[in-house]
Amino acid sequence: MTKVLMIVSAADHWTLNDGTLHPTGFWAEELVTPYSVFTDAGWGVDVATPGGKAPVVDKASLDGSAGDADTLAEVKTKLDELAPVLAEPLNLADVNAADYDLVFYPGGHGPMEDLAVDETSGRILAERMADNTPVALLCHAPAAVLATENAPGGSPFAGRKMTGFSNDEERAGGLAEKAPWLLEDRLVALGAVYDKAPEPWASFVIVDGSLYTGQNPSSSQDLAERLVKDLA
Predict the structure, then answer these.
(1) Which of 61, 110, 117, 137 would give a disulfide with 142, using CB separation of 3.0 to 4.6 Å?
(2) What is the pLDDT along the chain (232 residues), one digit of tens a residue?
(3) d(Cα 148, Cα 28) in Å, to the nearest integer?
């Protein structure tokens, strides 16, 4: 059976450039949709967070602006079903990522706060890249690769084709001016070969060898289905 390690942010806020704390967490669709696609394919999924802390859903991902009513209702139902799993995640520090066929990171602004500087996550990502084993990061989750920027010899993500939540999307969401940094800018500064959809919010997935990235919430289904297709 294919085994997936889903690494989820444990942050419940994002510290803005004025020092205020913007409530956040993981984006609901970006967790539950891939989780459902993977388990429907017969895969096993374990959830881990820094410190084994129960992750918090970003409430904005459940309000009317996050999607149509039918999709949101489905996401909420799936999230309720996953409540027991999310209540007791594994401690990331205790996990052997080499035991998993895929390491998957859902987004939300949470990763901008904790996974971007998490040494354990950074080590896992560097090892996966060195071993050429599958890694997937969705929306804001590519922020986690920033924890590899001081790796010996430089970040293994430099020169790799990637996408992630764009500057245009952050501006449209209203947080760009308050953000301490923007994901697109930091990925480019790291040396990644960044690309994005022609229009904000459109689904966009990039595959570069064993590295899979999706740009935004709309990419959740397409990214997960591509992984199932390729790893089957």
Answers:
(1) 137
(2) 999 999 999 999 999 999 999 999 999 999 999 999 999 999 999 999 999 999 999 999 999 788 888 889 999 999 999 999 999 999 999 999 999 999 999 999 999 999 999 999 999 999 999 999 999 999 999 999 999 999 888 999 999 999 999 999 999 999 999 999 999 999 999 999 999 999 999 999 999 999 999 999 999 999 999 999 999 8
(3) 26
CA distance 8 to 59: 16
Element at 169 (helix H, strand E): helix 167-173
From residue 145, how far is each of 96, 199, 222, 225 by CA, in Å?
A: 18, 24, 21, 23
Pick from 134, 129, 132, 109: which is nearest to 212 by CA? 134
The amino acid present at 50, given as its one-letter code, is P
Q: pTM surpassing 0.85?
A: yes
Quick one: tokens of 141?
Answer: 């989750």
Residue 158 neighbours by CB distance under 10 Å: 16
Q: Residues of 121-141 as b/e, b for ≥16 C-beta within 10 angstroms?
A: bbebbbebbeeeebbbbbbbb
Structural domains of the chain ordered from first start: 3-231 (3.40.50.880)
CB atoms < 10 A from the CB of 90, how many? 15
Scanning the structure block, which residue is given the tokens 């430089």? 154
